[in-house]
Design brief:
By secondary structure, the chain is an alpha/beta fold. The protein contains seven helices and ten strands.
Length: 250
C-alpha cells in the first residue's frame, strides 16, 4: 500500500498564440488503500492530471511522490486502465494480455501463467483465459484490463473513465465488481469520471476540479458504508453537494 502525493503540479501546453495552462498548483494526497475519485467539467484537467501521475506527461512545475519516491516518468509501480476497449492487445488471449506486465518484469513463464490465471479468477474470467478480446463483451474486456493492471502488483491503480463506454446496466455491474476487487487487493486508486453518481458509489473521497486553469476546487469525504444504496437520501445528498461544487461559479 502506497501513498500518492501531488505537490503544486502545474502544466502548460504550447499553442500557436500563447501557452495554455492545463493545470495550476494542483496539490492533494491519496492515502494508502484509499479510493479517490476526481470529477469536474470537460476540459478541467482531470485526465491531464492522471497522465502526469502516470508519467505520460511531465509537469511544468511541481512534483509527485508515490510511496515517498519521486515520479520521474512511466513505471511499473502504476497500473493504468483506460476507457478504450482497444487497450487490450487483439492478437493476445485474455491470459496473455494479463501476462504482459509480468513479462516486462522478467517473470518466468510458469509463474506468469499461474499469476495470470489467479487474477482472471479474481475478475471471474478464468473460463475465458484463451479467448481473444474480440470474443469478449465490453464489460469482460474491461475486467481483463483491470486484471492486467493488477497482476504485476503495481503500487497504485490509475483509472480514466474505464466504464464510460459501457451500457448502464453493465456499468453498474462493473462498479460493484470494482469495489469488490479493490476491497480484496487494497490498492491505492485514483479514478477519473464525469459521472457524479459513480464517484459517490465508488469513492472514499471525491475531489472536484475547476477549469481554466485546472485546479482543485473542493474535496468531499463520502461517509457512507458499503455496499451503498444509490437511492438513499444520504447518497443523493452527496450527489447534490458535488454537482453544486462542479457547476458553482466563483
Amino acid at each position: 500500500m502506497h501513498q500518492i502525493e501531488l505537490r503544486n503540479i502545474s502544466l502548460e501546453y504550447e499553442s500557436a498564440d500563447s501557452p495554455v495552462t492545463a493545470l495550476q498548483d494542483v496539490s492533494f494526497s491519496v492515502e494508502p488503500a484509499e479510493f479517490l475519485c476526481v470529477v469536474g467539467q470537460s476540459g478541467c484537467g482531470k485526465t491531464t492530471m492522471l497522465n502526469v501521475v502516470a508519467g505520460f506527461l511531465k509537469p511544468t512545475k511541481g512534483g509527485i511522490l508515490i510511496g515517498g519516491k519521486a515520479v520521474t516518468g512511466k513505471g511499473l509501480d502504476r497500473g493504468i486502465v483506460f476507457q478504450d476497449f482497444a487497450q487490450l492487445f487483439p492478437w493476445r488471449t485474455a491470459q496473455r494480455n494479463v501476462e504482459f506486465g509480468l513479462e516486462m518484469k522478467g517473470i518466468r513463464k510458469e509463474e506468469r501463467e499461474e499469476i495470470a490465471l489467479r487474477f482472471l479468477r479474481l475478475v471471474n474470467l478464468e473460463k475465458f483465459a484463451r479467448s481473444y478480446p474480440h470474443e469478449l463483451s465490453g464489460g469482460m474486456q474491461q475486467r481483463v484490463a483491470i486484471a492486467r493492471a493488477l497482476a504485476y502488483n503495481p503500487a497504485v491503480l490509475l483509472m480514466d473513465e474505464p466504464f464510460a463506454a459501457l451500457d448502464a446496466l453493465t456499468r453498474e455491474e462493473m462498479q460493484r465488481f470494482l469495489v469488490d476487487v479493490w476491497r480484496e487487493t487494497k490498492k491505492t486508486v485514483i479514478y477519473v469520471t464525469h459521472n457524479v453518481a459513480e464517484a459517490v458509489y465508488l469513492a472514499d473521497r471525491v475531489i472536484v476540479f475547476s477549469p481554466h486553469p485546472g485546479t482543485v476546487k473542493a474535496q468531499v469525504k463520502i461517509a457512507l458504508p458499503r455496499p451503498r444504496d444509490t437511492l438513499s437520501v444520504e447518497f443523493l445528498k452527496y450527489q447534490k453537494e458535488i454537482v453544486h461544487q462542479i457547476v458553482e461559479r466563483k
